[in-house]
Amino acid sequence: METQRRRLLSLLREKSFRCQPEAPFTLASGRLSPYYVDCRPVTHSAEGLALLGEIIFDLIKDLDVQAVGGLTMGADPLAHAAALVSWQKGQPVNAFSVRQVAKEHGAGGLIVGPVRPGDRVVILEDVITTGGSALKAVFAARDFGLEVVLALVLVDRQEGGREALAAAVPRVEAVFRIAHLADRDTLEERDG
């Protein structure tokens, strides 16, 4: 899996990461940062999806979960990639989405996908800063009756989001930290 992780990191550095210490970016949280991470150019690419599916499946395959998902739109490609690979590996794990706002027509609600109350799930997120989006997904999943066993993040910006998630979820893992993208850490130093 190390080869896939290294290739995914290379794609993220090339297509999703920008550093501008002289002109910081304003993040969705309102914070200023010299780093900007937009995972969509990678998470919506064919190669990125293939790598993500393999990596995420490898991280969740022994957890006895029925589904993976998170707040739309950042978590959607991650969940779909993992679900596809899980099917191909003969260990199906479904995907689900958490809407930003509940629909008031049709079946309504915040949760979309083949999940039922009592299902064990993994919440996915592409990037966390404060953890607000991932926490919204965690709370919506719990309100629906799902058991959240892990929050899995593609990139942890290392600005408190992981700690906020850890206060609400039994286990939190990040595939990469912002330091990996900024080329300050090696993959061997990855913490779970």
Written description of the protein model:
With 192 residues, this protein is α/β, with parallel strands linked by helices. Helix content is 36%, strand content 28%. α3 packs across α4 (76-88). The model has no long low-confidence stretch (mean pLDDT 92).
Characteristic terms for this protein:
Rossmann fold, 192 residues, two-stranded antiparallel sheet, alpha/beta, globular, 6-stranded mixed sheet
In short:
By secondary structure, this protein is of the alpha/beta class. The protein is 36% helix and 28% strand.
Number of helices: 7
The total domain count is 1
CATH class group: Alpha Beta
Shape: globular
Portion in beta strands: 25-35%
Number of strands: 10
CATH fold-level name: Rossmann fold
> What CATH architecture do you see?
3-Layer(aba) Sandwich
How confident is the prediction overall: mean pLDDT? 92
Helix/strand structural class? alpha/beta
Poorly predicted ranges (pLDDT <50, ≥5 residues)?
none
Largest sheet: 6 strands, mixed
Series of H and E elements? HEEEEHHEHEEEHEHEH
Q: Cα-atom Rg, whole angstroms?
A: 16 Å
Strand order across the largest sheet: 7-6-5-8-9-10
Q: Layout of SSEs?
A:
Elements: H1 2-15, E1 17-19, E2 25-26, E3 32-33, E4 35-37, H2 40-43, H3 46-60, E5 67-71, H4 76-88, E6 94-103, E7 109-112, E8 120-128, H5 132-144, E9 147-156, H6 161-166, E10 172-177, H7 178-181
Parallel strand pairs: 5-6, 5-8, 8-9, 9-10
Antiparallel strand pairs: 1-4, 2-3, 6-7
